[in-house]
Amino acid sequence: MEKITTVTGTAAPLRRSNVDTDQIIPAVFLKRVTKTGFDDALFYAWRQDPDFVLNRPEYQGVKVLIAGPDFGTGSSREHAVWALRDFGFDVVISSRFGDIFRGNSGKQGLLAAQVAYEDVERLWEVVEADPGIAVTVDLVERTVTVGSLKVPFEIDDYTRWRLLEGLDDIGLTLRDEAAIAEFESHRESWRPKTLPIREPAESGSL
Amino acid sequence: MNATSTNAAPAEDAVPATERPRTLAEKVWNAHLVAKGEDGTPDLIYIDLHLVHEVTSPQAFDGLRMAGRPVRRPDLTIATEDHNTPTLDIDKPIADLTSRTQIETLRRNAAEFGIRLHSLGDKEQGIVHVVGPQLGLTQPGITVVCGDSHTSTHGAFGAMAFGIGTSEVEHVLATQTLPLKPFKTMAINVEGTLRPGVTAKDIILAVIAKIGTGGGQGYVLEYRGSAIRALSMDGRMTICNMSIEAGARAGMVAPDATTYAYLEGRDHAPSGADWDAAVAYWKTLATDEGAEFDAEVFIDADTLEPFVTWGTNPGQGVSLSDTVPDPASIDDQHERAAAERALEYMALEPGTPLKDIAVDAVFMGSCTNSRIEDLRAFASIIKGKQKADGVRVMVVPGSARVRLEAEAEGLDKVFTDFGAEWRFAGCSMCLGMNPDQLAPGERCASTSNRNFEGRQGKGGRTHLVSPLVAAATAIRGTLSSPWDLQAEGEER
C-alpha cells in the first residue's frame, strides 16, 4: 500500500444521505474475480442520469468525494472501495460512515475522513461556488482545507498510522505469530471444526 | 440517536476488571484476545469459524497466492456457493459467464487451499448463514466472520459474528485472527408477548425504524427480554440477521435451553463429555446482573403490529395499518430529503394506506427468512388457497437441506398448489446478482433484508415484510397481514 500524507485535488459534492454500498456499486458488478476495473460500475444507476454530479463537466477528474451522512452503509462488499479508487477518488468525506465500509477503506488506502455535518455543508457550499477549487486533505494534521476554510476531520489513530506508513495488515499480524500459536495451544477441543466432515447420524433424516 | 439513552461510563476501575459484571459481548471478546492492543492499536482477536462464498473471496485467495501464504486453519473454514447461483436448472452449467467464472474460481481455490466446499447440487449447499447453523458449526461463545454483512445472523447463538471485507477475508485466511477495536454495547430490550400474526421480523423492522440505519454504528446489539427469550432459534436468527440494517456489525442473543436443544445432535455439535463441557461453558456467557451497556433501547412487544417498509432504506418502515408518511412532517432535514427521494423511487404518494398498495411479486426467501420455520409459517397461511391473479410468487429455501425437509413435510405441494414457484436454494431475489430479479418498476413484498434502490433488480421496488405478511399479500395482491384475511373471513 502506498503511503498517504496529504491529498490535493478537486472535489465533488454528493448531496445525499444513506448512500448504501448497493448504490456505490450494484451487485451485478460483483461477479468479477479481479480487484481492479470497477470504475465504470461506480454509482452505476445514478450515472445513467446526465445531471448526476459526477457526469457534470465541472466535476471531472475529482479526487475527493464530499457526501452526506451514513455513507457506505449496507453490504460488506469491498468492491465499493475498489470502485471509488478506480474512479480516481483518494478521499471520501462524510459525517458518518458504515462501519464495514470504513474498515475496508483503511485496508485499501482510501481515506475515509469523518467531518462534522456543519462542516460538510460548508465544504459543499465552497466547492459548489467554485467547482475547480483545490481541496487539500492533510492526514498528518487531520484537516481539510479549501480556500480560506479549514475544518478538522476524525480518523482513528491506528488507521491513520497505517495509511501514513503504508503498512500491510497481514504482515503486521504475522509478527504476533507466536501469540497466535500460543492461543491455539489451549483452545478447547470441543470448539467446532469444519474438517473432518461429519455426516448426519441418521442418513435417512433428510 | 434520540431513541436511545446513553449511560454514563462505569467508574474507572473501581472494581477489578475480572470481578466487574460483564456483558455477553465482552465475555466472548475477552475469551478471544490473542493480544491486547496498546496505545490505540487494536486488539488481535481469534476467529473460530470463517465462512466463505464465491463473491467476496476470489481477490483474497489471489492475495494469498501472491504472497505465498497458506490458509492457516482450513479446519475452521467452510465455503458454499450461494450469491450468484441460479435457483432453477442447477444441474446445467451456469448460463451467465461471469457468474460461472466466479463459481469455478471458488472451486479451484477451495481445492488448492484444502477448504471444504459445498457446491451447487450438494445436499449441504445453501446460503452461507443457513448452512453454518444447520451443520451445528455455529455455537455459543465463538467468533464467526464471513465476507458478508449478514454474518450477524450467527449472533443468535450467543456468538460474536460479523461481516468483513475482502482484505479481512484474506487476513483471516492467512492468520485466523483480525485486528479489531472493541465495540460499544447496546441492549435492545423487547418485553411482552407478540400477538398472533406478529413475528421476529416485525420486531427487527420496528427496532430499525426506531434507531435508524445508523443508530447501531460502532455497537454490538444484545437482544434481550421476554419476547426474545420466547423466540425459536429461527426467529432469533431473523432478528440478529438484520442488526446490520440498524448499522451494527453484530447482534447477539444469550444462549439458553432453546439454543442447546437446537444444537444437540447436529453434525458438528459437541457430543458426549464434550457436550457437557460445552454446555457448562455456554451457561456462563449470559450478561451478568448489573452489567452496564453503553446504550439501551426499549420495544414493547405487546403493542407491536405487522411491520412493512415504504421507502428505500430499512429504517423507513411503519405498521402495516399505517399510511405512507408525508416527508413534510419529518423534522430532520436529511430524513426528509431521503423520504422525498424514496417516495419518488417507490412511486408512492404520502397518505396512501399501506394496505392499498398492490404488488407484482412476492419473494419468500433470503438469509433473513428462508429456514424451515419460515417456510412453515408461509405455508400455514396459503394452504388450500390460490395466489392473487398476476402476482408472481417465489419460494426459495435457504439451503438444500431446508428444501429436502420442506418436501418431506409436503410443503412443496402447498406452494405449487397455491401457484408459487418452488426453487432450489440460494440468495436468489434478495440481491439482484443471479437470474432471479425484478423488472424495472416491479413492486415486491419481500422477506429479505434490504429495500435499497435496485437491490432486487434495476428499478425494482421492495417492501420488506415477514413471511406471514408475504403470504397474506400473495393471497390478496395488496400488502396485507393474516389479520386482514381473518377480517375478510368474518365479513363473509
Coarse structural class of chain A: alpha/beta
Q: What percentage of the residues of chain A does DSSP assign to strands (E)?
A: 15-25%
Q: Could you spell the SSE succession of chain A in H and E letters?
A: EEHEHEHEHEEEHHH
Low-confidence stretches of chain B: 1-14
Number of spatially distinct domains of chain B:
3
CATH architecture of the largest domain in chain B: 2-Layer Sandwich
Plain-language structure description:
The complex is a heterodimer of chains A (206) and B (492). By secondary structure, chain A is of the alpha/beta class. Chain A folds into two domains: 6-167, Alpha-Beta Barrel (Aconitase, domain 4); 170-205, no CATH class. Chain A is built from seven helices and eight strands; from the N terminus they run ββαβαβαβαβββααα. In chain A, strands 1-6-7-8 form a four-stranded antiparallel β-sheet, covered by helices on one side. A four-stranded parallel β-sheet of chain A has the order 2-3-4-5. In chain A, strand 7 and strand 8 (149-152) form a beta hairpin. Chain A is globular. In chain A, 43% of the residues are buried. Chain B is of the alpha/beta class and 492 residues long. Chain B has three domains: 43-178, 2-Layer Sandwich (Aconitase, domain 3); 182-300, Aconitase, Domain 2; 310-491, Aconitase, domain 3 (2-Layer Sandwich). Chain B has 16 helices and 20 strands. In chain B, the strands form five sheets. A five-stranded mixed β-sheet of chain B has the order 1-13-10-11-12. Chain B has a five-stranded parallel β-sheet with strand order 6-5-4-7-8, with helices on both faces. In chain B, helix 2 crosses helix 5 and helix 12 (372-382) packs across helix 14 (411-418). The radius of gyration of chain B is 22 Å and the shape is globular. The chains are: A alpha/beta (206), B alpha/beta (492). Chains A and B meet through helix 3, helix 6 and helix 7 of A and helix 2, helix 3, helix 5, helix 10 and helix 11 of B.
